[in-house]
Amino acid sequence: MDTIDELVANNRRFAESLPARHLDVRPSRRLAIVTCMDSRLDVFAALGLSDGEAHVLRNAGGVITDDVIRSLAISQRRLGTREVMLVHHTDCGMQTLTDDGFRAELQEATGVAPAFAIESFSDVGSDVRQSILRVRRSAFLPHRDQVRGFVYDVDSHRLDEVHVEGED
Ligand SMILES: [Zn+2]
Q: How far is CA 30 from the centre of its chain?
């Protein structure tokens, strides 16, 4: 049995173990979280969240791409969220590559240079600061006063807040 078959079987048991219910589509904590796709970060468990409480947007690196801004715009303008929490983490895969190197690798393998930016980073703290600023500067988002960034340590499971220079 391959992995996906196994997960589908897990879901059957999961669904049978729970009563049916309906939660509001709008997150009850009015919060959107942007984080990395990393397999060691269980966002809901690590932050004490439950179903229905927050939006979670994930990509390689937790990067604030145009598509993340698109999702945040919908999250805030249609689904009522007000705060944005950015969570990067230690030992990120994005620190193992460079933009130029990975772009060249893709072009060499396929003959096509990607249209998207790679967005690798070496210093996780500075990347969180950049991400905070990108969110705060996006005019598509009506709620930009509660934007905070953190680094999650994948070994100790602890969050450390990252502050933008000139702020507390
Ligand atoms: Zn990562």
A: 16
Looking at residue 165, its pLDDT comes to: 80
What residues have a C-beta under 5 A from ligand 1, the ion?
Answer: 36, 38, 92
Residue 152 alpha carbon to ligand 1 centre in Å? 10
Q: What is the pTM assigned to this prediction? A: 0.95
Average pLDDT of the chain?
96
d(CA 60, CA 17): 33
Residue 80 CA to ligand 1 center (angstroms) comes to 27
**Sequence-ordered list of residues with C-beta below 8 angstroms from that of 85, at least 6 positions apart, any chain:** 31, 32, 33, 34, 148, 149, 150
Q: What is the pLDDT of residue 120?
A: 95
Of the candidates 142, 129, 14, the one whose C-alpha atom is nearest the C-alpha of residue 79 is 142
Query: Model confidence at 167, in pLDDT bands (50, 70, 90)?
Result: confident
Q: What is the CA radius of gyration of the chain?
A: 18
